[in-house]
Every structure is written in C-alpha cells, then in structure tokens.
Amino acid sequence: MSTHLPSLAAPAQGNPTLEKKLDRKWIASLFERGAPTTYLKSRKELDYIGMPVGGIGCGTLYLGGDGRLWLWDVFNKNQTGVIYKNVKWHEKIQFNYDFLRPFDGANYVEPVKDIRPLDQGFAIRIEHDGKTIMKRLQADDWDEVSFEATYPMATVRYVDKTVPLSITLRAYSPFIPLNADDSGLPVTILSFTVENKTASHATITLAGWLENKASIYSANNEEYYRVNEAVRDAAFSGVMASSNSYNWADETFTSAGDFGNFFLASFNANTKVNTDASPDLTAPLFDSENATAAKIEQRKALATVSNTTTVPPGGRVELNYAVAWYFPNLSFDLLKKEGGRYYANTFKSSRQVASYVHANFERLSSETKSWCDAWYEQSTLPYWFLERTFLNISTLATTTVHRFQSGRFYAWEGVGSCPGTCNHVWQYAQAVARIFPSLERDTRERVDLGVAFHDDGHIGFRGEYDTQPAIDGQAGRILGIYREHQMSADNSFLKRQWPKTKHALQYLLAQDTNGDGMTDTQLENTLDAKWPGEIAWIVGLTLAAVKAGQRMAEEMNDEPFAATCKRYVTLGAANMEKHLFNGEYFIHRPDAQKGRTVIGSYNTCHIDQVYGQSWAHQVGLGRVLDKTKTIFALKALWKYNFTTDVGPYLKEHHGGRPYALPGEGGMIMNTNPRNEEVPYGVKDAWQVTYFHECMTGFEHQVASHMMAEGMTEESLILTRAIHDRYHAAKRNPFNEVECSDHYARAMASYGTFITACGFTYHGPTGSIGFHPKLTPHNFKAAFTAAEGWGTYAQEKKGKQQVHQLELKYGRLMLRSIQLERADKAKDLTVTLDNNFVKATIEQEGTSAKISLAQAVVLEKGQRLSVVL
C-alpha cells in the first residue's frame, strides 16, 4: 500500500482547536486493516528514511530508503542529535535563541539525510539471455525502489524495466522480545532474495563492499594505517577491517572511543573475498579475489565479498550477508565504574560477533521473523497503527541508549541530550517493559532503588547526574515497579524491592502537607520547573502510584500499609474531583500563599491532567478517578488542544519549539479556554514555551488513555496525526523528535497498543486478560508475558465466542483468564492442544473470569482455546 501525505481536514476557521472538520471517509479508513506502509522513490519518499538496524545499546546505524546503511554513529562520540547543527529560525524560542539546536527540533525542521562517513553498498550483475546487466542497489540505478516500513525488519524492493528478475532485500538486526542479549548484537543482517520468473536460467553475482573507517577520528595522519584481513571458510567468509598505529605504545589511540573494527561477512558458500578493492561497476568488483591481509595507508580502504549463483526458471535464491562492528570503549565521567559496552563481555572483535550470528543464524532470523509475523501479519489491527505504536522501540538501537559491561542500562532523554535515564521522561515509555522486561527490572533495582535512592526515600531523578527528586518521576517509578512485578514470572523481584519501594511510597505520601490526599509540595517536574499548589496531573499520578502501592502491599501481606494507601487514594480522589475539576476539565489550584506568582498550568487545559488514570489502565489498577469526569477531561483536550493544523495557533502563540509545523495536526500541550491574560502565572519564564508545543510522548499518552476510555475514534485520529507528521516525504518516520532525536518519551506509543487490546497481565499470579477496543468480533494481536510471547485471537459467532492463545516463544504459566463477555455464558469449554482443562467461569460486569482448576503451562507451539 502506498501512503500519501495526510489530509486531516480542510483549513480550520476561527478557533483552530475547536473546528476539526474531519472527513468521515478518512476517519473510517483509519480502522481498515490496510497494508504495510510502503514508501517509494517515484514519490521522493526515500531520502530521509533512517531505520535503526543495530542492537540494543550498540550505537546508531541507519538503514536507508534504498537499502544502503548510513549515519554510522557507532564510535562512542555521544554528540547531541544524530548530527549536531543549528538551524536559523524566524522567531525567538527558549532562552531567546533565534536558531534551533537538536534540543529544539533542528533535525525536525531540517531532517538529516545522506550522512555517509564511510562507503558501503551492494551491486548485482545479471547474465540472462545473452545480456549482462550491472546495477548498484541504490535508488539512482533503478526505475523504482520501495521501502516497507515494518520495524524491526524492513523490506526493500528494486524494480527496473531492464531487469528480468525480482530483487528483494530484508534488513534487520536480531530482535527477539524477552531476549535482550540476542537483541543487543552490534550487527545488521542483509538478506537478498532473487526470483527468476522468466523461462530461462539467469546467472547472478551479488557483491557487497565496506570501507574501513576504524578509528575514524583518531587515525588521521601518517602515524596510523588500516588493515583489511580476510577470513575464508566453507559458508562463513569476510573481511575484518581494523586500524593500527606505528607507535606500539600508543595507549591513547587504543583507548579512544573510535578504536575498534568492522566485519563484512558473507554467510554463503563459495564467497570471493577482496581485501583491497574498488566499488566501480566493473568485473573486478564482482570477480576479483585478494585473500591476503591488506595494509592500507592514507587512501580509501575498501573490502568486498561476492557470490555467483544460477537462478533457474521459476526459482529463487537467497544470499545472506552481515555487517558487524566492535567499538567497546564507551565512557562517561560519572560512570567509569560501569565499564565499556555490554557486548564486550561476550565478544572481543566484530569477527566474533559475525561468527556468532552465523552459527546461530537460523534461530536468530526465524525468531525475529516470528515476532514480525505475530505483530504485523497475523494481527487484525491496522498496519499503520501497528507501525506507529511499535517503531519507537527502535530508540533502543540508537545512541539515546547505552548498556554498560556491568549490565546497567543507561540512557539520555534523546540522542546526547539530558543525562541520567531521567525518570520523569522515561516513566512515559511503556514499550521497554513489555518487550524487554529484564532491562526495566534491572533499572528499577540497580538505579531507581539503587544508586538513585536516598535515605529519606526519594529517588534522584537523574541518578548520579541530579540527585534531587522529581515528583512525577517518583510516582512514575513506583508505578513502574508494580509493572515490572507484573511482568515477572514470580514475586521474587517485588520481595527484594518492597522495603525500598515502601519507603519511596512514604516519601510520596509525605508530599501532601495538609493531609487532603493531594500532593502540594513544590518539586521538580517534567516541564523543568517547580510548580507550587495542587496540580491535577501530579495529584492524579500520585494517586495512581499509591494505589499501585496498595496492591503491592497486599501482595506482600503488609495490610496496615495497604490500608494507609487505600485511605489516601479514597480521600485524594474525592478532593481532586471536588476541588480540581472545573466542570469541564481538571486544573492546577494555586498555592494559598504564593498564588499565581510562579509558573504553572492553573486554569488552562493541560495535556497530562488525567495522566494518573492513563497509567492505571496500563497496569490494570481500575478506576483511580471518576470515569465521567475523566472522559469530560479527555473531551476537553480533544475540543481545546487537538487541531488539524497547528499553523493558526502558532501564529498567535510564540516561542515554542517546532515539533509540529503549519499544515500539520497535533495536540497542543496547554491551551487557555478561559482566555485569561496571564494564564500561566508569569510571562517571562522560558518554560512557558513548552505550553505551545506538540510533543509526541505526551500525545501518545493521551491517545492510549482515549483508547482505554472508549474514545477509539479520537485515539486513532491523534495517533494518525503523529504518524503523518513523520511521513517519509517530510522526515525520518523512525525518529520522533522532542528534546533531541529518538526521544525516549515517544515510547509511550506502545501504551496505545496495550489499551487497544485491553491487555492486562500479572505473571506471578498467572493471570492474563484481553478486552479489545477494535473489531472485538474478530480480533487478533500479539502479546508478551514474563517468559513468553505469542498471539491472542477472539471471534464472536452469535452468542458463541471463541478465544485462543497461541504461544510462539518461551513459556506461559496461566491460572486465570479475563475475557470480554457482555452477558453470562451458559457453557464453557477450555482445551490445551485439544486436551480438556477443568475450569470455572464467573461473570464480572462485562468480563468473564475463567479460573483454571490447576495452573497450566503453555510451551512454544501450544494453543489454549476457550469457548463461551
């Protein structure tokens, strides 16, 4: 399917956030299954595409729209932004800058493209019916190139009227949910399929090349040289590209961030290897061999691998290659004790990485393909929706994220921007905990309740980099602890963490100074200010965290503390609904003494006003806030904050960073429905500029909440507005920008998938549940659990409902299943691979709780069926 630029609505008149003028046919199209988003050369949609194709914490390597690799940020430079540049801007923004930095959206306004510090590519020679055709596999050489944007595995197709064969590239790095180590390999796999649909044989030669740029910044004069070393084996051949110094005692050189090596590998038999080659489209590229080590000084150091094979009529061949890298010298001043890159624990060179991938190729590739099949192909959800809610997890394969030899997960907020795995940003990111829960469990234990934990119970919001508390970050991390417990196989994680978790909760409770159940202490928040008073979004987020605390206390048999938490939530929710709800939406009540002399959201319509209830839906806490008032608040956000074109709004409201441009739709952070002259208390605080921006992480959070509350249409429209802002004709679809590139908060998008499925899970109790919001009569989607993943499907035929869980990976222990059911079922049948399982059913509102007589364990390939 070809995706065109968005047509959200006709230009709005009057108040741009009030008049949507949405096309009903366009809205209906959002619900359609459709096909994978495919970008085309012919529509000039390939230039900005940069899909991360490395492993977790392995740097940033982009797959371009035509299948070539680019950017190559694997050298531990840690610059801000995928590249650092300033872009001239027409108005003053934060701190009165009249230009944009990567912090401010420079790479949103002027998207990055064609950054190629080293030369890499593939070419093909075709001999067919007496003719020889030679082409590079890049856009310039083909009539059409298409890019299918299904992260983590993209498909690139090459089409030309002169080429009688079908040529397809599938590019990826191994990506296996729940397996963080095998999803953290510094490697990109490039699998080419060539099909011959003609009536005669074709002989093809596929050649790949890679320039040796090891020590790209350090080896810059005649003191250094580069070495390409050949490796030859039956089905594993290639070239290791490294650097060296004539000064044997040059420790500065070997300890530099860019010291390391690359490996260009062929996983095919009869590979020709050339350690000193040229990428010109001539016979030497395809046929030359030089298997000796080449020592290359002060000139381009290119290596090639090539394979020749015959494709019979109606036949097909697959040729597999990989590019691996090894640059282990990662270092931060405050984190030296953590060691270098995590992959250095297992591998000592890129050759070892490539060798491991080759030895395990069938498993790594099949499990990656199995996930892609479960996520995209088997689902009934719209392709575009599956793409946008999932692709932000590619942030893990960028330099936003690092993983040290100690095993510690560490991250910026965005690429090179704002250190310390900032808890008030990362707590929005729902994706990692569901796909790689071990990383989040370790971060809660090692960082939040480890190096960032203080004697009074507060969690330093940037670990070693800023030890003060952030009120929203504290609440979010407590909710995260509960989520990580749910995504565990047993309760050992919570048992270890409970004493400190309880202390963190007690600190949170103490921030309510007047005992009304509403946090009112002036502490740091994610909008980089300390707001006084009682702030709906912080009060509600605290209530959700304390309710999670109640659940954890109950599981830990701490009944007195559970009762304390329950009383606090009951009191706080009642007061929040009474005092902070203005009849239309929730507000910020000023501090009694300070009034509105300090920055705050006050009577404005703030994007996060019911964020606590949104979080509650992510972890199955049920209601924290009254449903009617919550929906009123979400409808107010839709009415006042969402616009199909931000242009008219930005004409009147200046200073915000341009994360959405005129002609693009989005949800404004704060609007002023009461038309107050000084709505934010002050005029001159630089943080006021945040209120006029569209930041995708916040938008995704609202979309996930709307989906949970039954505002399905609004949720899809908001998500699609983001998806269309990141259309490849405009900018990189895989890089949602906030304060720098690949911003962590954007991983809130996965939360919308969770609520679309109505997914709940509690690993230690063996409980799982589904309540789909889209096509519940015929629904199928992927799910992940503590030890396994697979697909869930439900189908309604009259009064009969059929529900099926099929495991694709690992194992799944179950004791109970919560399913959607409007009325009480008369009959129940549960089978595991056609073997009957004893079970009982209990109706709870619109849900049916299926309790199994004894726990069952699904293994890979098994299917549990429930017929109501």
Description of the structure:
Residues 468-750 form the Glycosyl-hydrolase family 116 catalytic region domain. This is Glycosyl-hydrolase family 116 catalytic region domain-containing protein. There is one protein chain. Among the domains are: 183-199 and 209-359, no CATH class; 760-867, Golgi alpha-mannosidase II (Immunoglobulin-like, Sandwich), CATH 2.60.40.1180. Helix 7 (383-390) crosses helix 20, helix 11 packs parallel to helix 13 (536-555) and helix 13 runs antiparallel to helix 14 (559-579). The chain is α+β, with helices and mostly antiparallel strands. The strands form 9 sheets. A 10-stranded antiparallel beta sheet has the order 1-9-10-11-12-20-16-15-14-18, covered by helices on one side. Strands 29, 30, 31, 32, 33, 34, 35, 36, 37 and 38 form a 10-stranded mixed beta sheet that branches. The chain has a 5-stranded antiparallel beta sheet with strand order 8-7-13-19-17. Residues 1-14 have low confidence and may be disordered. Strand 2 and strand 3 (60-63) form a beta hairpin. It is built from 20 helices and 38 strands.
